[in-house]
Design goal:
Number of domains: 1
Largest sheet: 2 strands, parallel
Number of strands: 2
Distance between the termini: 21 Å
Structural class: mainly alpha
Strand order of the largest sheet: 1-2
Helix content: 25-40%
CATH topology: Rossmann fold
CATH superfamily: NAD(P)-binding Rossmann-like Domain
Strand content: 5-15%
Shape: elongated
Low-confidence stretches: none
Mean pLDDT: 95
CATH architecture: 3-Layer(aba) Sandwich
Order of helices and strands: HEHHE
Length: 92
C-alpha cells in the first residue's frame, strides 16, 4: 500500500488529490474471535500490549481519528506518507 500511495501522488498531482496510507497496530475488533475463546483473545492482546512501547493495544477510535486528520484540511500539505498508528511498534 505504501508503494501505491507513493506512486499515486505523482499520478494524481494534476487532479490535486492527496494519497496517504494508514498502518494500524493491534486494535481489538470482533474479528479477533477467530483466535478462539474470549480468554485466548485476551491472552493474545495482553501479549501484544506488553510488546508495544505504549504498553497497550489501540482502539478503533484512535485509528478513525488518524484517518479523519488525513481527510481534513489540517493535513492539506501531507501527501504520500505512511502514518503508523501502532503505539510505536514500527519504531522498534
Amino acid at each position: 500500500m505504501r508503494s501505491f500511495a507513493r506512486n499515486w501522488i505523482l499520478d494524481l498531482k494534476e487532479r490535486k488529490i492527496r494519497v496517504n496510507a494508514i498502518s494500524p497496530g493491534i486494535v481489538p475488533t470482533p474479528a479477533y474471535k477467530v483466535l478462539g475463546s474470549d480468554e485466548q483473545v485476551q491472552e493474545f492482546l495482553d501479549g501484544e500490549a506488553s510488546a508495544t512501547p505504549l504498553g497497550r493495544v489501540g482502539t478503533t477510535d484512535e485509528i478513525a481519528k488518524a484517518v479523519v486528520f488525513l481527510a481534513c484540511d489540517d493535513s492539506s500539505f501531507v501527501n504520500g506518507i505512511e502514518l503508523f498508528v501502532d503505539g510505536g511498534m514500527a519504531q522498534i
